[in-house]
Structures are given as structure tokens and as C-alpha cells.
Write a structure and sequence with these properties.
Length: about 130
């Protein structure tokens, strides 16, 4: 049986071997989100002078797609972001398991409700 502090280490090794580094994609393959543009034009048009809101598919992976778009320039790497999130949770469970007596996260347990860590991991590891 391995120590809890080593959880996720083997997963990170597998990622580095089989996935490697995700390349930064120079061109944005996502198009501008017309609904977001319309809302910003109405309420905060100055933001459009500097920023362009991009569309991300609303398929249940939108959070991971948005992070991948921000990090890598394309939402196509959303599964890679999902795997990295799972590896992070495995490596540092005391930051994510609010029901653990070893919880050291930033939020007070009494201020929030979250699923058990097993359910959170299941949600992170399944697409959609």
C-alpha cells in the first residue's frame, strides 16, 4: 500500500510519458461569442476595445474547455485539463476533501456543501 502523499505521482508520470507537454496553439480556433458581445455592448462596451469573448461549446465540458482555451489557445485540449485536475486532486486530497479531518483548503467547511471526494473524482474523470 502506498502512502497518501504519493497519490497522483504515478498518474503525473503517466501523463508525461503518454500525453507529454501540450503545445501552445498560436491561432485561436474558437470564434467570437455573439451573445457575449451583445451583452458587453449593452452593459460594458469598453471591455470590447481590449478583449474578445470567445465561444466555448456548452456540452458539459465547458469549464474544462474554457480553461484549455485560456491556457493552450484551443478548447480541444479539454480532456488534458480534466486529467490534470484529477491528478491534482489525487496528489493533494487534503485541499479538496472537505469531509476529511486533514482538510486544509481555503474555504471553511461550514460555509459550503460539496460531495464526498469519491463523487468529485468521478465527476472530474467522466466527460460531460
Amino acid at each position: 500500500m502506498r502512502e497518501k502523499t504519493s497519490y497522483g505521482t504515478s498518474e503525473m508520470t503517466l501523463i508525461s510519458i503518454y500525453v507529454g507537454e501540450v503545445p501552445v496553439v498560436g491561432d485561436q480556433r474558437s470564434c467570437e461569442d455573439p451573445t457575449a458581445v451583445q451583452i458587453l455592448q449593452q452593459y460594458q462596451p469598453s471591455l470590447l476595445q481590449r478583449y474578445s469573448p470567445l465561444y466555448v461549446a456548452a456540452d458539459g465540458n465547458c469549464c474544462y474547455r474554457a480553461v484549455a482555451l485560456a491556457l493552450f489557445g484551443t478548447a480541444d485540449f479539454h480532456l488534458h485539463v480534466r486529467v490534470l485536475a484529477a491528478a491534482e486532486m489525487l496528489r493533494f486530497p487534503s485541499h479538496y476533501d472537505v469531509n476529511s479531518p486533514n482538510y486544509v483548503g481555503a474555504l471553511a467547511v461550514s460555509d459550503m456543501f460539496t460531495s464526498p471526494i469519491e463523487e468529485l473524482m468521478d465527476a472530474v474523470l467522466h466527460e460531460g
